[in-house]
Design brief:
alpha+beta, 7-stranded mixed beta sheet, 4-stranded antiparallel beta sheet, 52 helices
Length: 1892
């Protein structure tokens, strides 16, 4: 009996308790095994009663020791939280040696207590089996009791649940297994280490060791996917991924952890970039490209600026990571311009690295400054420029380097290139010759060529547009710095120093910078002190002079660095507007050294700010996630480093005290340090004073405590250079040096104007100028600006980790890595996530992963979300351990591990059952086989024994005699029976065979007769059916064509009627205008004749006129009064109209607002209309100018007439005019009086008309104008000016009368045209009757021809070898003579009718030309009308008495002008309609002509005595060449051609035209046609670059055209398969081999575009269908994914499947076949597509570690089989497409094969021949088990395979080139179709081609 011990904790104390055997009293308290919670980071103890005792006996019911009754559930002793990280359901976990290890939840973030419902529940006591709730094993159940006795190899349990992590001085954390059960209160935990040694580990009950994750969760892409989230789990996961799987990138929530491999990896090529482009982060393996893609995608989607923050310590790979991120942006966002902005952005990196990077003890290319590169994008998300900001350059490196370190790279590059001619004037030597480059001892970096790097630096300068002069200026400054460092300063006594003016280096320094050597030598050793009273020159000691020299060198280099950065920014500037940007921050990480100074202080201060921003961002993301999923949000405590930041930057903080001390003339480091001691020691817990030092201080940063030496703080913060040296440099003759030291203020950063976000906390700004100039204040300001920028963007974090200090590839130093993880915030992110619900699964993932734990009723439910909830409530009864969100399930730490344990137990139980039945079956089979063998042996043995006993001589004789008697007796009986049976059988057979023979004969006879009847009946039916069908089809075709022609004629006649009416109206208008002109001329003549008589009567009329004028004036006054009254009425009515119009406009505005969307769509049409209107307005303006000129001429003429007359005649003419005006006045007065009453009526009617017109105007405005135009046209002023006088109504009445006259003319003209149209209709009806009669004749003739053809076909088939075949045909054709005579007569009549019809149509066409003349005359008449109207208006204006009515007359004039313009527009519309009708008439005539031609051709076919022989060529005219290309190539639609037509029909037609040009021996014609055809094919392909069907169609026709040119070229190699007739059709005069080459090139280009289109359509569905879709149901590969969820985990019903891939392939194949593509080309295209499928799938597999599993290998193999079946179904096995899938097939095999022993490694080496060594190792390293039954690939096995693969010489590239194209070959396939038999469909519209 196995006794399982439990350690329990009740109220703080514990007792050892043992499980009683089966059958013990269940009511005993000690028999209860209480399952408890499983949470994070720890072990646990089962709850129970204190003082329990082992049961007495196996079946006893004795009481327990202590309290004899069990505690109630939920009582204070039930389930005290002890160790964290384990689940709350299912009891203990079986451990080693049959023991049980029961974990309980306890956590420093969340400590879920045990559920009351489960803490008191009794566990079932079934040995070896799990209970009913999900298959959870019983507490205390041993492995030995779990399986049957016959199972020799039971499924072993994975002991992940009794493994813990313990601290280790070397490895930081070490894994151990619990060897002995733990009891609460034990001080020692017995552990078994991995090397087999036992260890007694002292523990604290309050802090037990953290639990280890299951192996299934180790090596995850995302650290947040781990069930137990703590430091050892993170470290172990990174070790597995980095050291074993060789994966350098890992997600930790929103952070990308990047480990420096110290080795070049093939994971940064363009193929990798393309693979990550457009992908979601969770879909691919972690990578810097994935972070860059996420930033780019969020920028494009949300139009929000992004930032990528790359941090880490020196040597961690920050610079390389930032460079790869920028390279990714440059690759995926390439612009279409030729500016190459992306190359310039990338080119800035080598320059900044040369001047800002140096070799340190930790890194060969360490960035000694911070850099924020802002990459700008336009609205199309393409790079348009960049800008760079730098932070805290390490200037001290210029003058000092530690051992094994170097100065900046640029100095060594310059020294390495010193011997080149272009650098000789710098007078440089090797780096060992200069003090500033040899301090570190070693001036060379292993594997780095400084001279080659110098060439690269110069190239990047040129690429940025910085010319050689600029470069040489920079090199001169750098050389001057080196020479300055070699200037020798000698001591003169103790207080002085000096520099020799003859110093060679000083002379070179001054020569390069244009300085005076004497002044430099003087002021290097002296300084000027200016006081209020005097100026003192004070000499300096040698150390002071050396410091002054070094300070000058640092200052010059700092200015040079800033200048280079400024020039780079200028080179990257852009002219357009920045839409968005992505910033890449490459900044130093947290630093702590043995000696830390001012630089480390500033670096750590910056990291404090960045860490604060990072913590807030992580906290914000967590909160948003919970709020989005409606999970109750509780505050989480996280480390806030604001106190440290306040200590540094707040008022009276460290920086402010430092700046204050720098202001003091005698300020020292010691005084400043003393102030720090006084202000912060014992007052601020974050500031400490070292015990053994008075020159340093300690700050508790977020990462660690750092001790800073105060020496040099003030000097570095001041960063001062003596004034005299600055003055000397400012006066330099070298412009660059002089500009460095100008007093102009430094321009502000270009980023400042772009930032609009304000910081949440006010930053303390300095007060004085001196205070601002310190390095600390500058750094704080730039850091503030950086934080502002980052807060205004969406950040993405990359934490670079240095794995070891020795720079060894893939070496994992746990100590160094843990130190960096703590410093960079990775563990802080995990801690924040772990405090609540760190594990998050979507419902689909949970359902797919844990469906095995669900019962049948649960699985039968359709709602997966509800099923997940029910299952979780059953499995984990403590609801506090999980929460249900909208789309995800949130788990506390450790719950996923518990679920994995339940799943594993369930699978293990299933495996045990399967093993049991299989082994039982095998044993039973073996038993039955042995039993049968035993029975047989027994049978033979017993028979032998019996025979030996029974055999004697007498018995043998008797037996022999009996046998003989029996023989004869049996023989007789058998013979008798045989004879009887034989006779009977023969008789039956005879009768039966006769009956069957007779029946068979009758049946054969009936069948023979039936066959004869069926033959004749079917023949008759077939003939009748064919005749009916043909008659019906011809009838339908002819009737349809005639009806369509009649309809067109009717439409044309109707349109002609309207046009004739309009023309007659215009003619009558012109006649009326002519009459008016004649009347005016007659009046002028009468006026001249009356002039003399008026002179005589003038005196007499004066007095009468004066009297009449007085009366008229009175009468006019009365009329004016009446007019004013009318105006008042009109105003009132206009006001009413205004109100109504306002209401109407309001309604219009409401309607307009509703139709704004429609208006936006009509705006484009409106713009086009406005352009047309503007043109019309311009033409009207020109006409108005012409009218004005005529008006001026008339004025001049009138003036001349007035001048010629003397004064008396002038008075007479004036009186005569007045008399005329008096008569006119009388008439007008009478009209006014008579129409006074009518005006009111007209006003009323006008109101209604105005309303109607306004409604029409508003509709037109809505269609064509904007709402502002409507308002302007309905303004108040226009309404006030409207209808002021009654003249408008008179004019309106006159216009109505004129229109009535015109209408009468229209009516008369209309009647005439109607009569003509009726006559035409009668002719058309008669013609249709004739056509019907002709159709009947055609049908009869066709019937006879059909019978004749049928008879001829029958005779030819039966009498093929009879020599008089032609004689029989002639006899048959004689029978057709009568019908031919009749047909000739009818065709002649038909030709006559058609000629009449064509003549009639030609007559109509000729009438179209005078219409144009009439239309032109109408334009002239309208212009004359306008002139007459202007003349009338001028005459009216001359009357002095109507001056007051001038405004109304002007309005009338404007109305007349508008009416005239409207008429002109109508005339133009009529002209356009006339042109359109003329074109329609021409089309109808063309159709009639084509109809006559077809009839003639039909007659020609039937009438001649013998058939024509066609020559296989098509005749065309030179001028029809463009039309031929247009109709046959450009306008041809593939879908209408590929149906029921021969493949390549357009190509055959083109070649038949080529044969015609060749037969004419016309080189120009042939050349023109070939060029036009080729250009047409190019054009149609260019216009349809993305149309797969069009490309397939023209690829097929191009190949057919090319094959025709070869087949009929006359070359022997292409004529092998021709028949004699085809050989006769060969080209005779020209060699078209050059055109064949051009066509071949065109075909290749079409094929490549054809492949590109197919690949673009297929590529998006390859990975979802081939890799993600699970073809084998029930084999799910989902695992926990962590923070970065896979997009495929979403339940997308529209996701692509393997069926989608096959459907797309089938569509491609069917389209290619329909278009007649050559089968060989189809095979090549399919091969290319299969290569793409294999390459894309394999590349995605390489980059997706979660897909590298055995189950996924099975899925891929299944999908490959589907593709192979598709090939077999399409008969494409010989296309070599299957071979292109070989790498993918081998990769699938590699995932499934066993990977353990040496033989396995050898098998992999021999079988994976299509995969390269890099690819094989990548798959092995990426192999990820989905279940615990699968085992990881050990590093030793990978090394074995790698050793075998070392002998291979294959590519080192990881990814397959998906853009690779196989070489295409166009096979020569001769056309089987005879050119003579090819018919041209009418749909091609090639009626102008003639077959010869």
């Amino acid at each position: 009996m196995a006794v399982a011990k439990l350690y329990t904790q009740v109220g703080g104390s514990a007792d050892l308790r043992e499980r009683s055997p089966p059958g013990a009293n269940a009511d005993c308290a000690c028999a209860q095994a209480t399952p408890v919670h499983l949470a994070r980071d720890g072990l646990a103890a089962a709850t129970g009663r204190r003082g329990g005792q082992r049961a007495q006996g196996s079946g006893g019911t004795g009481p327990c020791r202590g309290e004899g009754t069990p505690r109630e559930p939920g009582s204070p002793g039930d389930g005290q939280a002890e160790w964290e990280g384990l689940p709350s359901q299912g009891g203990g976990f079986p451990g080693r040696r049959g023991r049980t290890y029961v974990p309980v939840s306890r956590d420093w973030s969340t400590a879920p207590s045990s559920s009351p419902a489960t803490s008191g529940r009794r566990s079932r006591r079934r040995s070896g089996h799990s209970n009913s709730s999900g298959g959870i094993p019983e507490v205390g159940a041993t492995v030995d009791q779990s399986y049957s006795s016959f199972m020799r190899k039971p499924i072993t349990q994975d002991p992940w649940y009794n493994r813990v992590w313990i601290p280790d001085p070397e490895e930081v954390w070490k894994s151990a297994e619990i060897a002995k059960d733990y009891r609460v209160g034990d001080k020692v935990l017995q552990l078994l280490l991995e090397d087999g040694t036992e260890l007694d580990y002292s523990i604290d009950p309050e802090s037990l060791p953290p639990l280890r994750n299951p192996d299934i969760l180790v090596g995850e892409n995302d650290l947040t996917a781990l069930s137990y989230l703590h430091e050892p789990a993170v470290l172990h996961n990174l070790r597995i991924r980095f050291a074993e799987s060789k994966l350098i990138y890992t997600y930790s929530g929103i952070i990308l952890v990047a480990m420096n491999p110290y080795k070049q990896l093939p994971i940064y090529g363009d193929a990798i970039i393309q693979a990550y482009s457009g992908q979601n982060m969770g879909d691919m393996d972690p990578h810097i490209f994935a972070v860059a893609e996420e930033a780019y995608k969020q920028m494009a989607r949300n139009n929000r600026n992004q930032s990528i923050i790359v941090s880490g310590e020196s040597g961690a790979g920050k610079t390389v990571s930032a460079r790869y991120a920028m390279r990714y942006f440059a690759t995926v966002s390439k612009s279409s311009s030729n500016a190459h902005v992306e190359d310039k952005v990338l080119a800035s990196n080598p320059i900044t690295e040369a001047v800002g990077n140096a070799k340190t003890t930790r890194n060969d290319n360490s960035s000694r400054f911070g850099k924020y590169t802002e990459i700008s994008f336009d609205e199309r998300n393409q790079i348009i420029g960049a800008n760079m900001r730098t932070y805290l350059l390490e200037k001290s490196r210029v003058v000092f380097q530690s051992e094994n370190e170097r100065n900046y790279h640029i100095f060594y590059q310059l020294c390495a290139s010193a011997q080149q001619s272009e650098f000789k004037h710098l007078k440089l030597g090797s780096a060992e010759e200069f003090n500033y480059t040899r301090m570190g001892g070693n001036t060379v970096i292993e594997g780095v060529n400084d001279r080659a790097n110098m060439v690269e630096t110069q190239k990047t300068f040129v690429l940025l547009g910085l010319k050689e002069d600029f470069q040489m200026d920079i090199f001169k400054v750098l050389a001057a710095i080196l020479h300055l460092g070699n200037v020798q300063i000698t001591a003169v006594g103790n207080e002085r120093s000096s520099v020799s003016e003859d110093d060679s280096h000083l002379e070179v320094f001054c020569e390069l910078l244009g300085l005076e050597s004497s002044k430099v030598a003087k002021w290097l050793c002296n300084r000027k002190i200016i006081t209020t009273s005097e100026t003192v020159v004070k000499p300096m000691t040698r150390p002071q002079a050396v410091n002054a020299r070094d300070a000058l060198a640092k200052k010059i280099y700092a200015h040079l660095f800033d200048f280079v950065v400024e020039k780079i920014n200028q080179a990257l500037q852009f002219s357009g507007k920045q839409h968005t940007f992505i910033g890449v921050l490459d900044i130093y990480g947290f630093e702590t050294f043995d000696v830390n100074s001012f630089e480390q202080f500033c670096i750590n201060y910056a990291n404090e700010k960045l860490q604060q921003q990072f913590n807030l961002h992580v906290f914000k993301l967590e909160q948003e996630e919970y709020m989005k999923e409606d999970i109750p949000w509780t505050l989480i405590d996280f480390y806030d480093n604001q106190p440290v930041i306040d200590l540094i930057e707040a008022k009276m903080g460290i920086l402010e005290l430092l700046d204050e001390e720098c202001l003091l003339p005698h300020g020292t480091d010691e005084n400043w340090l003393q102030k720090l001691y006084n202000n912060f020691v014992n007052k601020n817990s974050l500031f400490e004073k070292p015990r053994m030092s008075n020159t340093s201080f300690i700050i508790q940063h977020f990462a660690d405590k750092v001790e800073y030496k105060c020496e040099g703080f003030l000097e570095k913060n001041r960063d001062t250079v003596y004034d005299m040296l600055v003055e000397i440099l400012r006066a330099s003759k070298f412009h660059l040096c002089a500009n460095f030291f100008q007093e102009n203020p430094v321009p502000s950063s270009p980023f400042g104007s772009m930032i609009t976000v304000k910081s949440a906390k006010q930053v303390i700004k300095p007060n004085s100028k001196h205070f601002r100039t310190t390095v600390g204040s500058k750094f704080r300001s730039s850091l503030y600006l950086l934080m502002e920028t980052l807060n205004a963007t969406t950040p993405h974090y990359v934490r670079c980790i240095k794995p070891n200090d020795e720079k060894l590839p893939f070496e994992f130093d746990s100590k160094r890595i843990v130190q960096q993880l703590r410093a960079c915030g990775v563990l802080e992110t995990i801690r924040i996530s772990a405090q609540s619900y760190p594990s998050r699964w979507t419902y689909i993932e949970f359902y797919s992963r844990y469906s095995i734990l669900m019962t049948k009723p649960e699985l039968s439910c359709g709602d997966k979300k509800e099923v997940c909830k029910v299952v979780l409530h059953r499995l984990i009864q403590d609801s506090n351990q999980y929460k249900f969100g909208k789309t995800k399930i949130f788990f506390r730490a450790g719950q996923v591990a518990y679920l994995e344990k339940l799943r594993l137990d369930k699978l293990r139980q299933g495996c045990v059952v399967i093993q049991k039945h299989i082994r039982g079956w095998l044993q039973r089979k073996k038993f039955l086989r042995e039993r049968q063998a035993a029975l047989i042996i027994q049978q033979y043995f017993r028979g032998q024994k019996t025979m030996r006993k029974a055999i004697t001589a007498t018995a043998l004789k008797e037996a022999w005699a009996a046998i003989v008697i029996q023989k004869h007796c049996r023989g007789y009986l058998v013979r008798s029976l045989y004879q009887l049976i034989r006779v009977t059988t023969i008789t039956v057979q005879a009768y039966t065979r006769g009956f069957l023979a007779r029946r068979r004969y009758r049946k054969m006879l009936e069948e023979h007769k039936a066959v004869i009847l069926q033959k004749y009946a079917r023949a008759w039916l077939a003939r009748r059916r064919f005749q009916n069908i043909r008659r019906f089809v011809l009838n339908i075709q002819l009737t349809y064509r005639v009806q369509r022609l009649q309809k067109k004629l009717e439409d044309q006649n109707k349109e002609n009627h309207g046009l004739v009416e309009k023309l007659t109206s215009l003619a009558t208008l012109r006649a009326s205008d002519v009459e008016k002109v004649q009347k005016l001329e007659a009046e002028l003549e009468r006026a001249a004749t009356q002039r003399q008589s008026s002179e005589e009567k003038g005196r007499r009329y004066r007095e009468a006129v004066e009297e009449k004028l007085a009366k008229l004036q009175k009468h006019n006054s009365e009329l004016e009064i009446q007019k004013e009254q009318m105006q008042m009425k009109l105003r009132e009515k206009t006001e009413e109209l205004k109100e109504k119009m306002d209401n109407l406009t309001k309604q219009l505005f409401d309607d307009v607002q509703k139709e704004e969307r429609q208006r936006t769509l009509l705006e484009k049409d409106f713009e086009l209309k406005t352009q047309d209107y503007e043109k019309q307005i311009q033409s009207l303006k020109e006409e108005i100018k012409a009218l004005k000129e005529e008006k001026m001429q008339l004025h001049l003429q009138l003036g001349k007439e007035r001048v010629t007359c003397d004064g008396l005649k002038g008075e007479v003419s004036r009186l005569s005019k007045q008399a005329q005006t008096i008569s006119e006045f009388k008439k007008e007065i009478e009209l006014l009086q008579t129409q006074k009453i009518d005006v009111e009526k007209h006003v009323q009617s006008q109101k209604r008309e105005m309303r109607e017109k306004m409604s029409e105007i508003t509709k037109q405005l809505l269609e064509s104008y904007d709402i502002e135009d409507v308002r302007s046209r309905l303004s108040v002023e226009d309404l006030e000016h409207l209808n002021e006088d009654g003249e408008l109504w008179f004019a309106y009445e006159g216009l109505k009368k004129a229109t009535r006259v015109l209408e009468s003319h229209f009516q008369t003209q209309k009647e005439c045209y109607e009569k003509e149209i009726e006559a035409l209709n009668f002719k058309v009806v008669h013609l249709s009757q004739e056509i019907n009669h002709l159709q009947n004749l055609f049908r009869e003739e066709n019937d006879i021809n059909a019978s004749i053809r049928h008879e001829v076909a029958r005779l030819t088939s039966e009498n093929m070898m009879i020599p008089d075949f032609k004689q029989q045909i002639s006899e048959l054709e004689k029978q057709k003579q009568d019908l031919e005579i009749r047909l000739n007569e009818q065709t002649e009549k038909m030709k006559g009718k058609l000629e009449e019809l064509s003549n009639q149509l030609n007559h109509n066409q000729e009438e179209g030309t005078p219409r144009k003349v009439i239309a032109g005359q109408n334009e002239i008449h309208t212009k004359e009308n306008e002139k007459l109207i202007n003349k009338i208006q001028e005459i009216q204006e001359t009357s002095e008495c109507l001056k007051k009515q001038f405004e109304t007359e002007s309005e009338v004039k404007s109305n007349f002008q508008q009416e005239a313009s409207r008429l002109m527009l109508e005339n133009r519309d009529l002209e356009e309609e006339l042109d359109m009708k003329d074109r329609v008439i021409k089309k109808l005539q063309d159709q009639v002509k084509t109809l006559t031609k077809t009839i003639e051709k039909a007659n020609d076919v039937h009438l001649p005595s013998g058939p024509k022989e066609h020559l296989g060529m098509l005749e065309y005219k030179r001028e029809d060449e463009a039309k031929l290309i247009q109709n046959l190539i450009l306008d041809l639609k593939p879908r209408g051609v590929v149906v029921n037509m021969i493949p390549g029909l357009p190509a055959h037609i083109l070649f038949m035209c080529v044969r015609y040009a060749d037969s004419r021996n016309d080189a120009d014609m042939l050349k023109s046609f070939m060029n036009s055809a080729i250009n047409g094919i190019k054009q149609v392909v260019k216009e349809h670059l993305e149309d797969f069907e069009m490309l397939s169609f023209w690829l097929s026709n191009t190949c057919h055209f090319l094959n025709c040119l070869k087949q009929y070229s006359g070359e022997e190699e292409f004529m092998k398969h021709n028949n004699p007739r085809q050989n006769k059709n060969c080209l005779n005069n020209f060699d078209l081999s050059e055109y064949r080459q051009i066509l071949s090139d065109v075909a290749i280009r079409i094929y490549h575009q054809f492949i590109v289109v197919m690949e673009n359509n297929l590529q998006p569905i390859i990975v979802p269908g081939m890799l993600e879709y699970e073809s084998l149901q029930g084999i799910s590969g989902l695992k926990p994914t962590g923070f970065r969820k896979r997009s495929s985990s979403i339940d997308d019903t529209d996701a692509y499947t393997m069926t989608s891939v096959l459907q797309q392939l089938s569509y491609f194949y069917s389209t290619m076949c329909q278009n007649g593509l050559d089968p060989e080309l189809v095979r090549q295209a399919v091969k290319q597509l299969f290569f793409l499928i294999g390459a894309v799938t394999l590349n995605s597999l390489f980059l997706r570690k979660d897909m590298c599993s055995c189950r996924k290998g099975m899925q891929i193999r299944c999908n490959i089989s589907y593709l192979e079946e598709w090939l077999k179904d399409k008969n494409l096995q010989n296309s070599l497409a299957k071979e292109t899938l070989e790498p993918l097939s081998q990769a699938a095999w590699l995932l499934q094969v066993k990977k353990t022993t040496d033989s396995d490694a050898k098998e992999i080496y021999e079988c994976c021949t299509s995969l390269s060594a890099v690819q094989i190792i990548k798959i092995l390293n990426s192999y990820t088990p989905i279940d615990d039954f699968e085992k990881r690939v050990t590093p030793s096995f990978v090394r074995k395979v790698q050793a075998l693969l070392n002998n291979r010489e294959d590519s080192s590239q990881l990814m397959l080139d998906t853009k690779y194209l196989f070489q295409v070959t166009f096979p020569f396939t001769p056309s089987p179709y005879a050119l003579e038999m090819i018919q041209i469909p009418s749909s091609f519209k090639l009626g102008f081609l003639n077959r010869l």
